[in-house]
Structures are given as structure tokens and as C-alpha cells.
Amino acid sequence: MNFDQRLIRQMPLSELWNTTGVVSTINHGSRGRKAIIELLRRGLVWFMIANVGDKPSWIPLDMCYIWWKTEIRDRLIEPEDAAVWIRYDSFPGGYCYVAEEWENFDGIPIIVLTVWH
User: How far apart are CA 84 and CA 37, in angstroms?
Assistant: First the structure.
């Protein structure tokens, strides 16, 4: 399989991949702001942006804190709010994210951010 061309076809995802192959198959469920902040306090976090029709977009580890502050934090939907109607235009840029934590083979946590728009 040519992983560098593989697109996200449907949600929810059953596995995660990058350009070289599968990196995770275990989803630990939804995470909110407090849980992600705690992971970031412990160390580096992989962020992966998931949008149907696109390739997975992996944020470089050395950019995880900057991405959290400038892109993710103000667009994150809390897990309990994901079940209610969301006004996308109330978020910067008219889109938001739902976060899930996945297990990574190298021990670094992965937060998958599904785009809602």
C-alpha cells in the first residue's frame, strides 16, 4: 500500500497512518482541554489533523506547543459538547476540532483532531 497517497475516507478512523505506514490502532476515546493540557505538561504530543477527503496532517513534534496555543486551543470542542448542535461560525475560521487520544508505538501520545466545518 502507498501510505503517502492514502486519504481519509470515513470517520471514525480504525487506524492511524503516516507516509511510511500504520502508527496506531488503539483509540482511547475523546479528550477535552484539561486532558490535553495534562499530556502537554508531561512532554511532547503528536497532533494529527483528520479531515475526510484529505491525507492525515501530522504536526511536527517540535511544533506541538505552538500549535496547541495558536490553532487548537480556541477551536476545541469539549467531549460533552460534541453531542449538541455546534455553530461553526462561532469558532475562529469557521471550523473546530473534536479530539481523541490514540496509543502510539513509540510511547508519545497522539491526539487526533477531527475537523468539523
Answer: 23
Helix (H, G, I), strand (E, B) or coil at 44: coil
Q: Which three-class secondary structure state does DSSP give residue 84?
A: coil
Q: State the Cα–Cα distance between residues 95 and 82, nearest whole angstrom.
A: 13
Q: Do residues 74 and 4 lie in contact, with contact meaning Cβ atoms separated by under 8 Å?
A: no
Instruction: Say how far apart CA 84 and CA 63 lie, in whole Å.
Output: 31
Q: How many residues in total does the chain contain?
A: 117
- Give pLDDT, residue 84: 74
- Residue 44: which pLDDT band, with cuts at 50, 70 and 90? very high
Separation CA 58–CA 72 (nearest Å): 13
Give the predicted TM-score (pTM) of the model: 0.94
